[in-house]
Amino acid sequence: MKKLDIYISKNFIKSFLLSLIAFINIFILSQLFKIIRYITAGRMSVSESATYILYLLPKIFIEVTPLAVLLGSLMCINRMASNLEIISLKTSGISFRRIVRYPIIISFLISLIVFQVMNRIHPMALAKSRALRAGRKISERVLPTTKNNAFLRTEDNLVYYIKQVDRIGNTGTLLEIIKLNKDFEKIEEIITAKSGEFDLNKNQWVLKDAVVNNFVNKTQKSYKVYSNETLDKGPSDFITIQGDPDELTNAEIAKSIRDIRITGGDIKEPLSVLGKRYSFPFASFIVSFLGLALGSRYVRGASAISIALSVGLGYSYYIVQASFEALSVNGLLNPFISGWIPNVIFLCLGIYFMKEAEY
Q1: Burial per residue of 24-36, b for 16 or more beta-carbon CB atoms within 10 angstroms, e otherwise
Q2: Up-side HSE of residue 39: CA atoms within 13 Å toward CB?
Q3: How far is it, in rounded angstroms, from Cα 179 to Cα 181?
Q4: Of 129, 301, 322, 353, which residue is least crowded by CB atoms under 10 Å?
Q5: Reading across the β-sheet that carries 158-166, which strands appear in turn?
């Protein structure tokens, strides 16, 4: 790293940190009025409110970092342009892309930090902040007693469908169990029953008024009472706690999606959250192109316009990102595609402005 790179990198990091601290303070101030209401209403003590603010910091950091990178990069390069340093470097034959190489690299590293905070720290902090605000323990989650239209696929290629399952009474109504071959392509057996009770001692279902259709032997048999040791998935396997995806790590969300798929649940929300986890952190890297390019030219009186334009573009990113996120939540777009469309759009804008800054 040359002295020029060290000089530019130091200025960029300094501008970024100043912008980050400013934005974090603004967001904390916006939360203070709400926290004061919690204290006056007796929902929080003063010490709990301080802890609550600490738990909010990861979320605030994630949300404001792209704006801090955008404003920090603009301030850094604009200061150099106002001192005629950019023009001097260009005149000496150094391209603008070479000048801003290390700020862009640093922005990418910042994006990786945001990715880790979003994956590891934010879920835990969000869960604790919500628990503190609600006045409950994190572990206090109510498991549903019953579930309608319950699906479950087992490792033995059995597919369960139960119209209504009750985990307290260990019962089910209108059961249908389908057994498929090893390749999961052909149906070998279908068992239907009007009702059933799960025997905890034998760890198997006891079905009433059951009909067993065997497609291999081409037979059909009716039973007043039917049981089989392979039918070992009890009501508790059908009813599980589906945590808020925002409070889970990426690995936990992926596992939750697999579990929900097996039980036939809706996976649009966790998929949308996971898609955002892999796209939003890189907004910091993408908007750095805009800030560096817009701050490259010094025209007297134009600094305010550049700052206003960059902040406007920064907030427009959030609007576009939220719009495509809504489409993914509603199942109209693949969550990973919808998460990266805003990134691609603003990356193209950044590259365009970067090319314009060369001249």
Answers
A1: beebeeeeeeebe
A2: 15
A3: 7
A4: 301
A5: 146-153, 158-166, 171-180, 187-199, 204-214, 219-227
Give the 3-state secondary structure of residue 198.
Answer: strand
Mean pLDDT of 246-265: 77
Is the four-CA dihedral 338, 340, 344, 345 of positive or negative sign? positive
260 or 25: which leads in pLDDT = 25
**Three-class SS state of 335:** helix
Average pLDDT value for the chain: 85
From the list 57, 53, 60, the residue with the least C-alpha distance to 34 is 53
**Helix axis angle, 46-82 to 303-329, nearest 10°:** 130
CA distance 39 to 133: 11
89-146: pLDDT as tens digits: 888 888 888 888 999 999 999 999 999 999 999 999 998 888 887 765 544 455 678 8
Which residues, including other chains, have CB under 8 Å from residue 118's CB and lie 6 or more apart? 62, 277, 280, 281
Q: Residue 223 pairs with which residues in a beta bridge? A: 210
C-alpha neighbours within 13 Å on the C-beta side of residue 183: 2
Element (H, E) at 331: none
Tokens describing residue 239:
């009813």
